[in-house]
Write a structure and sequence with these properties.
This protein has 145 residues and is mostly helical. It is built from 4 helices and no strands.
Length: 145
């Protein structure tokens, strides 16, 4: 293994230096691994903090969107629509168009709120609007001049 010219003490010293170097390398690798784990932990903590901050911003917007859709559905109920749109002496065709225009304007006014609500909620609002338009058209189709 080693030439005979090396005394046993030198072999032990070199072996200890090699073992020490190996321990230093392992320690550095462990420190690097711990550092990466700590960075990942901080990153995950930051992600959680960002999620909490996002919820603080988004939640009021979501609540407001649901409130606006409720208000929309209340405003486009036929009794409220008729009170708001009808003017005594108004012709049938004009009244019909005014009702439809009012429903569409109310809907368009709240269109951006779809960003903050579930797809099922948005679909329910769209379906309610379409049913109301169909109901208005059917009713006016049955009326005489």
């Amino acid at each position: 293994m080693y030439p005979k010219s090396y005394p046993i003490n030198a072999i032990i010293v070199y072996s200890l230096k090699g073992a020490g170097l190996l321990m230093i390398v392992v320690a550095v690798m462990m420190l690097m691994r711990l550092s990466k784990m700590k960075d990942a932990e901080l990153h995950n903590g930051n992600k959680m903090e960002l999620k909490v901050q996002a919820l603080k911003i988004i939640m009021p917007l979501k609540v407001q969107a649901y409130e606006r859709f409720l208000l929309y559905l209340e405003r486009v109920q036929l009794p409220q629509l008729v009170k708001r749109v009808y003017v005594p002496g108004m012709e049938k065709g004009t009244f019909h168009l005014q009702l439809l225009q009012n429903v569409r304007e109310e809907f368009e006014h709240n269109l951006a709120q779809q960003l903050y609500v579930a797809n099922s909620t948005w679909n329910a609002v769209v379906n309610a609007k379409e049913e109301l338009v169909n109901q208005i058209n059917t009713t006016f189709g049955q009326l005489k001049d």
